[in-house]
Amino acid sequence: MGEFEAFNRSLFLLINGGSDTPHWLIQLAIGIAAGLIYLLPVLLLGFWLWGTRGERQLVLKAALVTVIALLANQLLWAIWPHPRPFMIGLGHTWMLHAPDSSFPSDHMTVFGCIGLTLLLDGLSGWGVIILLTGLSVAWARVFLGVHFPLDMVGAMVVSLLVYAGFSPLWRRIGQPVTDLAERCYRSLMAVPIRAGWLRG
Fold it and tell me: Is-contact 154 142, C-beta < 8 A?
């Protein structure tokens, strides 16, 4: 076992909830680990339905960065499958999870991609909030025994690399892609837009 893996496992055991963990803390961690990610599509949908054109362009960029990063995760899992803690009998597991590869974390990748895009492209306040929320999700998933700490670090590295690689392309295609998406949106949602419920 290499030094990084030994460090990863040692750090995991420091964070992972033990046998004397209070029930309320486990339930809180499960809520954070499994539930907070569903707030992200609600937030992005809100920016699209009632936001400015610039905010809509950011929503599309964040969504595409996220999709590309999740595909990159799939490739990493195929090249280098890494067992989750419960697959090697390490620590305590407080949450059901499929026995698939743990590195990098999809949950943290989603938070990382959306948070970094908003942070670096003009909605810095929201970006910070999303990244801090992602940090709490990262803690919860390690605490519950379904991820290692370096799974979260790897997710942030993937997010940053995909963001940096995609941004030059987005500068060229962002405007026409946003134009097309807005035309489709205005056609599909013409009635509520005319009623003033949504922004046109």
Answer: no
Cβ contacts of residue 103 below 8 Å, gap of 6+? Answer: 76, 77, 80, 82, 148, 150, 151, 154
Contact 148, 103 (CB under 8 A): yes
Domain residue ranges in the chain: 22-194
142's tokens: 């390690």
Instruction: Report yes or no on whether pTM surpasses 0.90.
Output: yes
HSE at residue 124, side-chain half, CA atoms within 13 A, is 2
Q: Rg of the chain over CA atoms, in angstroms?
A: 19
Asked if 123 and 55 count as a contact pair (C-beta separation under 8 A), the reply is: yes
Q: Output the six-digit token pair for 111.
A: 């938070």
Instruction: Write down the pLDDT at residue 1.
Output: 61
Residues in the chain where the model's pLDDT stays below 50: none
